[in-house]
Design brief:
- With 170 residues, this protein is mostly helical.
- The chain is built from four helices and no strands.
- Bound molecules: fe (ii) ion (FE2) (2 copies).
């Protein structure tokens, strides 16, 4: 079988193997963050009790689909960069702050947990964007679009928190 030549330029070039592998590792971390966020948002869109929780629940229900879409984008990019999307046994949970609260009417706990998760994503995605500068503009472009979604999520939940703070409930 004839060998195909690899790309001479760009992140797929042989010269960029080490950089590419570093990006793949960062993408794997991003992938797991999205997967865990999907789990946490399902949990926290079902558990809360009370009239006040309704807005938060509906907002999280919408976000689940978006976060799942992010996970799929990160997975696809891992493959494009010659990586392998990890299996579930490689998963290590980190979102201690999004575990169910003691009382299911404690919606402030959920709001603060979501802000923490979104902030973590924002920080990691900014690191990827900076790392990709001048070396992988395709990954950078993708992550910039995802970052905008996370900034939107964070801002929305900051707004919810402000309302609770204004009422002396947070
Ligand atoms: Fe996301
Ligand atoms: Fe998000």
């Amino acid at each position: 079988m004839a060998t195909v030549r690899s790309a001479a330029q760009g992140i797929l070039a042989d010269d960029n193997t080490e950089t590419r592998e570093q990006i793949v590792e960062m993408l794997k971390k991003a992938y797991w963050m999205e997967i865990e966020t999907v789990m946490s948002y399902i949990t926290n869109s079902i558990n809360p009790d009370g009239v006040r929780a309704q807005e938060i629940v509906e907002s999280l229900q919408q976000d689940i689909q978006e976060e799942l879409g992010h996970a799929q984008q990160f997975a696809a990019r891992i493959k494009e960069l010659y990586g392998v999307v990890p299996g579930s046994l490689d998963f290590t949970p980190e979102q201690s702050y999004l575990q169910p609260p003691e009382h299911q009417t404690d919606i402030v706990h959920v709001i603060k947990g979501v802000i923490e998760a979104e902030t973590g994503a924002i920080e990691h995605y900014n690191r990827i964007i900076e790392f990709c500068d001048d070396v992988d503009l395709v990954t950078q472009d993708m992550v910039i679009a995802i970052l905008r979604d996370e900034e939107g999520h964070r801002r929305l939940f900051e707004g919810y928190l402000r309302e609770y703070e204004a009422e002396g409930l947070a």
